[in-house]
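Side project, low priority. Logging it here so it doesn't get lost.
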Amino acid sequence: MILLIDHYDSFTYNIYQAVAEMGVEVEVVRYGALTVAELLAKKPEAIILSPGPGHPDALPESIKLIQTACQSIPLLGVCLGHQLLGAAFGGNVVQAPVIRHGKVSPVRHSDRGLFAHLPQPLPVMRYHSLVLEPETLPECFEVNAVATDDNSIMAIKHRDYPVFGLQFHPESIGTPDGVKLLKEFVSGLKRKAAVNG
């Protein structure tokens, strides 16, 4: 089962639908409805941190969840969820150079991991006014994608743990290959389950 933490955002259910259509059980839990211990007691195979309004500093329970779960449970952060990942490891979240709400940007990506075999550049849909500050991005993260129009960080991956962040919206029709990114995350879970029996 994948836990999807809802940070009070309508996009949460688009992510839910996209992932559930892949044949995996997804449980949506609204931010603050359960403690970190109660969330972890559900024994999720993975946790997806949804988009949402506001700043990661206003969501201390999600920061705590990331810090507690990151070594053992795969995490995927989308938009605000991506920013939460960076903040949980000590990075700063700052005003974006240009506010992007409903704007498509081309991104250059690593062509590895979640991005393997995707078009280069990759068009993605953006809905955000905050970004991870490149100068304070913790060294434990590698940058997997950068917007070519403003050089904002669009994707990160932890160097040691199964932790991935996407600043853009993979569930959006404006990200034509976004479902492939989500499928690669889910496929990684299925491969891990097969190995662990």
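Brief comment: The chain has one domain: 2-196.
Revisit when time allows.
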